[in-house]
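Reading a protein record of the kind used here takes little practice once its layout is understood. The reader may check this reading against the record printed directly beneath this paragraph.
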Amino acid sequence: MLQCTIKVYAKCLRPDIEYKTLGITYQTTSREVVNSLLNKYRMRHRDPNLFYLTMEVTVRKAGIRTVIVLDDESRPAVLQSCHPRGDSRFALQIRHGGLVKIYDSVLMPGSKYKSLLISEHTTVDELIQILLNCYSSKERVEQFSLYEVCESQEYQRKLHPDDCPLQVQRAWAQGQGFHFLLRLNLDYRFRRSKVPWSPDSPPIPCTSRQSIAQTETVATYPDYQNYFYI
């Protein structure tokens, strides 16, 4: 398979990183380039959904520079081959995100919680995978579930794997003691099993309520851009 090299400017990862040269194929996508950069710099606790690539194209004769935002399925090697050498460059960019706080003692008994910066489109399963990465855990995402817990109303709700925690968090009322709790899913092998629907199938409740005894409170982080991993 044909390969080429691209240079990606990545100061948004760390101020001391100017660029990284990567060897990729013509089938490599922008998303794969982002993941490769995060892995090379051991930043697996960072949310890949926060990052994207841009391509700056220069038309020298006209003195025009154009910046193109690449989607996840774009192929940087193919795009680079469409322009004279030196007339294009790639840069890693970061999106605006939000901070979520997850009580995760089920993963590490000595840990109380982790604070992670994620995108608004990051799903529950993707967030759990980031948590597993923080501990270099080889356990499967399906072994765990994320719960929305409200102390003042004494209830908890199991989130769907495709729910977006940051969007859920933005709907919380201030001062109600909401937080996220990671739990071991003992029947994880059956969590994604599909049951054939029939007219006689009983309805499945989307929430469940039960008393909880925890008293942790959730802090607010107005300067959340500075909190990546605690």
About this structure: The chain has a mean pLDDT of 83. Helices lie at 30-40, 76-81, 124-134, 165-170.
